[in-house]
Design goal:
Layout: E1 5-11, H1 15-24, E2 29-34, E3 39-45, H2 49-59, E4 62-69, H3 71-76, H4 78-102, H5 111-131, H6 143-159
Antiparallel strand pairs: 1-3, 1-4, 2-3
Length: 160
Protein backbone atom coordinates (compact mmCIF):
# COMPACT_ATOMS: atom_id res chain seq x y z
CA UNK A 1 0.00 0.00 0.00
CA UNK A 2 1.44 3.35 -1.05
CA UNK A 3 1.01 5.74 1.85
CA UNK A 4 3.05 8.71 0.69
CA UNK A 5 5.23 8.82 -2.38
CA UNK A 6 8.00 11.38 -2.68
CA UNK A 7 8.91 12.40 -6.19
CA UNK A 8 12.27 13.46 -7.50
CA UNK A 9 13.71 14.56 -10.82
CA UNK A 10 17.42 13.75 -11.21
CA UNK A 11 19.78 15.28 -13.75
CA UNK A 12 23.08 13.67 -14.52
CA UNK A 13 24.84 10.95 -16.47
CA UNK A 14 24.48 7.28 -15.54
CA UNK A 15 20.78 7.16 -14.65
CA UNK A 16 20.76 3.37 -15.18
CA UNK A 17 23.52 3.00 -12.60
CA UNK A 18 21.39 5.03 -10.14
CA UNK A 19 18.41 2.77 -10.73
CA UNK A 20 20.54 -0.37 -10.16
CA UNK A 21 21.94 1.04 -6.88
CA UNK A 22 18.44 1.98 -5.67
CA UNK A 23 17.21 -1.53 -6.49
CA UNK A 24 20.16 -3.07 -4.63
CA UNK A 25 19.39 -0.87 -1.59
CA UNK A 26 15.82 -2.25 -1.53
CA UNK A 27 14.05 0.95 -2.56
CA UNK A 28 10.74 0.46 -4.40
CA UNK A 29 10.38 2.87 -7.30
CA UNK A 30 7.13 3.98 -8.92
CA UNK A 31 6.37 5.77 -12.19
CA UNK A 32 9.95 5.80 -13.45
CA UNK A 33 10.33 7.81 -16.67
CA UNK A 34 13.11 9.39 -18.62
CA UNK A 35 12.34 12.93 -19.77
CA UNK A 36 15.47 13.41 -21.84
CA UNK A 37 19.01 11.98 -22.11
CA UNK A 38 20.11 13.40 -18.74
CA UNK A 39 16.85 13.66 -16.75
CA UNK A 40 15.14 10.82 -14.88
CA UNK A 41 11.93 11.20 -12.84
CA UNK A 42 10.64 8.67 -10.32
CA UNK A 43 8.65 8.30 -7.10
CA UNK A 44 9.64 6.36 -3.98
CA UNK A 45 8.05 5.71 -0.58
CA UNK A 46 8.73 8.35 2.05
CA UNK A 47 10.23 5.78 4.45
CA UNK A 48 13.14 5.33 1.98
CA UNK A 49 14.06 9.04 2.06
CA UNK A 50 17.41 8.58 3.81
CA UNK A 51 18.62 5.80 1.49
CA UNK A 52 17.63 7.69 -1.66
CA UNK A 53 19.18 11.00 -0.58
CA UNK A 54 22.40 9.23 0.45
CA UNK A 55 22.73 7.48 -2.93
CA UNK A 56 21.93 10.67 -4.85
CA UNK A 57 24.66 12.58 -2.98
CA UNK A 58 27.23 9.82 -3.43
CA UNK A 59 26.60 9.60 -7.19
CA UNK A 60 26.48 13.40 -7.65
CA UNK A 61 23.06 13.94 -9.20
CA UNK A 62 21.35 17.33 -9.25
CA UNK A 63 17.82 16.76 -7.94
CA UNK A 64 14.58 18.74 -7.80
CA UNK A 65 11.58 17.52 -5.81
CA UNK A 66 8.28 16.62 -7.50
CA UNK A 67 4.80 16.95 -5.91
CA UNK A 68 3.96 14.19 -3.45
CA UNK A 69 1.52 11.41 -4.37
CA UNK A 70 -0.54 8.84 -2.47
CA UNK A 71 -3.45 8.97 -0.06
CA UNK A 72 -1.33 10.44 2.74
CA UNK A 73 -0.94 13.58 0.62
CA UNK A 74 -4.69 14.07 0.88
CA UNK A 75 -4.51 13.40 4.62
CA UNK A 76 -1.84 16.09 4.86
CA UNK A 77 -4.36 18.54 3.35
CA UNK A 78 -6.96 17.88 6.09
CA UNK A 79 -5.74 20.58 8.49
CA UNK A 80 -6.63 23.19 5.88
CA UNK A 81 -10.09 21.69 5.33
CA UNK A 82 -11.08 21.15 8.97
CA UNK A 83 -12.18 24.74 9.79
CA UNK A 84 -14.43 24.86 6.71
CA UNK A 85 -15.93 21.46 7.53
CA UNK A 86 -16.61 22.53 11.12
CA UNK A 87 -18.25 25.75 9.93
CA UNK A 88 -20.44 23.84 7.47
CA UNK A 89 -21.54 21.30 10.11
CA UNK A 90 -22.29 24.10 12.57
CA UNK A 91 -24.40 25.93 10.00
CA UNK A 92 -26.34 22.76 9.16
CA UNK A 93 -26.97 22.02 12.85
CA UNK A 94 -28.19 25.58 13.43
CA UNK A 95 -30.48 25.35 10.42
CA UNK A 96 -31.94 22.02 11.57
CA UNK A 97 -32.39 23.38 15.11
CA UNK A 98 -34.13 26.57 13.94
CA UNK A 99 -36.51 24.68 11.66
CA UNK A 100 -37.83 22.82 14.70
CA UNK A 101 -39.37 26.05 16.02
CA UNK A 102 -40.30 28.10 12.97
CA UNK A 103 -42.76 25.87 11.10
CA UNK A 104 -44.45 23.95 13.92
CA UNK A 105 -48.10 24.97 14.54
CA UNK A 106 -50.36 22.71 16.58
CA UNK A 107 -54.11 23.40 16.86
CA UNK A 108 -55.99 21.46 19.50
CA UNK A 109 -59.57 21.60 20.70
CA UNK A 110 -60.99 22.99 17.45
CA UNK A 111 -63.74 20.37 17.14
CA UNK A 112 -66.63 22.62 18.28
CA UNK A 113 -65.46 25.47 16.08
CA UNK A 114 -65.18 23.19 13.03
CA UNK A 115 -68.80 22.04 13.47
CA UNK A 116 -69.98 25.64 13.73
CA UNK A 117 -68.14 26.54 10.56
CA UNK A 118 -69.77 23.63 8.71
CA UNK A 119 -73.23 24.84 9.80
CA UNK A 120 -72.44 28.39 8.75
CA UNK A 121 -71.09 27.22 5.39
CA UNK A 122 -74.24 25.19 4.75
CA UNK A 123 -76.42 28.20 5.63
CA UNK A 124 -74.32 30.41 3.38
CA UNK A 125 -74.71 27.95 0.49
CA UNK A 126 -78.48 27.92 1.03
CA UNK A 127 -78.49 31.70 1.10
CA UNK A 128 -76.54 31.84 -2.18
CA UNK A 129 -78.99 29.41 -3.79
CA UNK A 130 -81.89 31.58 -2.67
CA UNK A 131 -80.19 34.79 -3.77
CA UNK A 132 -80.12 33.50 -7.34
CA UNK A 133 -83.89 33.86 -7.32
CA UNK A 134 -85.11 37.22 -8.64
CA UNK A 135 -86.34 39.88 -6.17
CA UNK A 136 -85.04 38.10 -3.05
CA UNK A 137 -83.33 40.33 -0.47
CA UNK A 138 -81.42 39.37 2.59
CA UNK A 139 -84.08 41.03 4.71
CA UNK A 140 -86.53 38.53 3.28
CA UNK A 141 -84.69 35.71 5.06
CA UNK A 142 -85.68 34.68 8.57
CA UNK A 143 -83.60 36.12 11.47
CA UNK A 144 -82.12 32.66 12.25
CA UNK A 145 -80.86 32.32 8.71
CA UNK A 146 -79.39 35.81 8.87
CA UNK A 147 -77.52 34.95 12.09
CA UNK A 148 -76.05 31.77 10.63
CA UNK A 149 -74.97 33.65 7.53
CA UNK A 150 -73.39 36.37 9.68
CA UNK A 151 -71.51 33.75 11.74
CA UNK A 152 -70.18 32.14 8.60
CA UNK A 153 -69.07 35.55 7.33
CA UNK A 154 -67.38 36.46 10.62
CA UNK A 155 -65.63 33.08 10.74
CA UNK A 156 -64.32 33.60 7.23
CA UNK A 157 -63.10 37.11 8.07
CA UNK A 158 -61.40 35.86 11.22
CA UNK A 159 -59.45 33.29 9.19
CA UNK A 160 -58.27 35.84 6.62
Amino acid sequence: MRALLQGISCQGLGAERLLEKLKAAGVRLYDVRRQDAKTLCFYYESRDQERVSGLLKSLGFACTPLPARGYARRLAQWPRLVPGAIALLTALCCLAFSLQFVWRIDISGAGAYAGEVRQGAAARQAQIRRSNQPNLRRSALSPAQNRLGARADSGRNAQN
